[in-house]
């Protein structure tokens, strides 16, 4: 979550049953935020392919709730920030942070999101909500990312080189697919 765009990051429904990562939910939408007189922020989303309005979000002035509305203004759902205990199997907090791609194809489709500001925390791996964290016993870990129609498993590792921390994501054959450098904690 960045201070400039506080609506981004992990959100959950009021009952905690559904987790949403704002960046994942709105991959094909351009966003036009407007700060309202009361300090709340309205985020207008339009389809990047056709420019048609798709939905709107309203971030409360105290930044505790995010209301999802359809393009006509009808409320679809209300979200709040999840608490750490709501994470199904969180990665260790020592690995959390913002990462930037240093190796891999940044021009092709990347299911984890942008090559800059790849965020790892208790709820998201890039733009993907994740669960089922497991240690593979060989220095790598696996998680299930629930993005897309069917979701997918990811094998990755964290390493430290000098003072730098790296995240490496592997393909199905164990080859390095992407490598990221942690740029902020």
Portion of residues in beta strands equals over 45%
Low-confidence stretches: none
Mean pLDDT: 87
Q: Compute the CA-based radius of gyration.
A: 17 Å
Give the beta-strand count.
15
Question: Secondary-structure element sequence?
Answer: EEHEEEEEEEEEEEEE
Distance between the termini: 11 Å
The figure for the number of domains is: 2
The global form is: globular
The helix content is under 10%
Describe the secondary-structure layout.
Layout: E1 10-13, E2 19-21, H1 22-25, E3 29-35, E4 41-47, E5 53-59, E6 65-70, E7 75-80, E8 97-103, E9 118-120, E10 124-125, E11 128-135, E12 141-145, E13 152-161, E14 164-170, E15 176-184
Antiparallel strand pairs: 1-2, 1-7, 3-4, 4-5, 5-6, 6-7, 8-9, 8-15, 10-11, 11-12, 12-13, 13-14, 14-15
What can you see in these coordinates?
This protein folds into two domains: 71 residues, no CATH class; 98 residues. By secondary structure, the protein is mostly beta strands. The longest helix is centred in the N-terminal third of the chain and has 4 residues. The strands form two sheets. An eight-stranded antiparallel sheet has the order 9-8-15-14-13-12-11-10, with no helix packed on it. A seven-stranded antiparallel sheet has the order 2-1-7-6-5-4-3. The chain contains one helix and 15 strands. 2% of the residues lie in helices and 49% in strands. The N and C termini lie close together (11 Å).
């Amino acid at each position: 979550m960045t201070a400039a765009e506080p609506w981004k990051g992990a959100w959950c429904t009021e009952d905690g049953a559904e987790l949403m990562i704002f960046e994942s939910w709105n991959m094909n939408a351009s966003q036009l935020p407007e700060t309202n007189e009361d300090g709340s922020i309205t985020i207008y989303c339009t389809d990047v392919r056709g420019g048609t309005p798709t939905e709107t979000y309203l971030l409360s002035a105290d930044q505790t709730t995010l209301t999802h509305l359809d393009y006509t203004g009808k409320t679809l759902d209300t979200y709040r920030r999840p608490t750490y205990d709501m994470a199904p199997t969180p990665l260790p907090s020592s690995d959390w942070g913002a990462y930037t791609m240093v190796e891999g194809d940044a021009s092709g489709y990347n299911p984890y999101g942008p090559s800059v500001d790849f965020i790892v925390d208790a709820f998201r791996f890039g733009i993907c909500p994740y669960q089922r964290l497991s240690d593979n016993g060989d220095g790598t870990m696996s998680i299930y990312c629930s993005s897309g129609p069917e979701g997918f498993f990811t094998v990755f590792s964290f390493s430290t080189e000098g003072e730098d921390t790296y995240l490496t994501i592997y393909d199905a054959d164990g080859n390095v697919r992407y490598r990221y450098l942690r740029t902020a904690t």
